[in-house]
Specification:
Largest sheet: 7 strands, mixed
Strand content: 15-25%
CATH topology: Rossmann fold
CATH class: Alpha Beta
Number of strands: 7
Helix content: 25-40%
CATH architecture: 3-Layer(aba) Sandwich
């Protein structure tokens, strides 16, 4: 076996250059690592690693900059769009993206993302929605489902008391400064491929100077959902997708040619 001739073998899988060699701090079954890889693959394929800057705020992905071989920085909780705005305006040749969770972007940072979209900031936002505050103990988030049990809603989310889950993609898609707003998921292979294509398109939208691009990704949190990793993926499909339908919510006319170029398998 040690003398096997490998010359006739083809490499079909390797670590993207934009993905650093690092030991993960994420919980078993968490899909943050998978989303990181999709981002890294898109960066490699577009050849933008040398000029890309990641902005990671407080949340499960607070150490996201440790997992990428690109420039990165950390923003205060909810303030990633503001920091990214400053970086992009002062260095317009850079590709700047934020990586934010639902507790960050849809709660303390709601004002930031709405006005970044309103200004048409030429940024890319990766919004990871796992319907909970993952890092701080699984409390109810703006995206927590009706009736969903969390550490701060032990009897389930009471919509009469706290309202319905916030649908971020639908909200941001109504703002003219947003050029590309889509919702994807990573609960199975087909949707993983669609998510990667959307991330790549979002970066291309920024490269073309078309305005703000946002990719919402439905993600699992087995630890705080108190599920096995496999069950958590099924819960995304069975419980989350009906509340947060997958699809394109805003695709500006100028973006359409880009989406054709980034179809899975195309």
């Amino acid at each position: 076996m040690n003398n096997m001739d490998l010359t006739n073998f083809e490499v079909v899988y390797s670590r993207p250059e934009a993905l650093a060699i690092a030991t993960t701090h994420y919980c078993p079954g968490c899909t943050h690592g998978l989303i990181h890889r999709l981002i890294a693959e898109a960066i490699d394929e577009l050849g933008i690693g040398e000029r890309t800057i990641l902005v990671a705020p407080v949340g499960c992905a607070v150490f996201a900059y440790n997992y990428f071989s690109i420039d990165g920085c950390e923003a205060p909780h909810g303030r990633a769009p503001a920091m990214a705005t400053g970086l992009k305006r002062s260095q317009p040749d850079k590709i700047v993206f934020t990586y934010q969770g639902d507790g960050d972007l849809a709660a303390i940072g709601t004002n930031e993302i709405i006005h970044a979209a309103g200004r048409g900031e030429n940024l890319t936002v990766i919004f990871v929605n796992n319907a909970t505050y993952g890092m701080t103990g699984g409390q109810m988030a703006p995206t927590t489902l009706a009736g969903q049990v969390t550490s701060s809603s032990p009897y389930g989310r009471d919509v009469e008391l706290v309202g319905q889950p916030m649908r971020v993609s639908e909200l941001i898609s109504t703002i003219p400064g947003a050029a590309y707003v889509v919702r994807r998921s990573v609960h199975n292979i087909a949707n993983i491929n669609k998510t990667k294509a959307a991330i790549k398109t979002a970066f291309q939208v920024q490269m073309e100077g078309l305005g703000l691009s946002l990719v919402e990704v439905l993600s699992s949190c087995p630890t705080n959902w108190h599920m096995t990793p496999s069950a958590a993926l099924h819960w995304i499909e069975d419980a989350m997708v009906p509340v947060f339908p997958l699809g394109d919510y805003r695709v500006a006319e100028a973006v359409t040619p880009l989406t054709k170029r980034t179809r899975p398998g195309g």
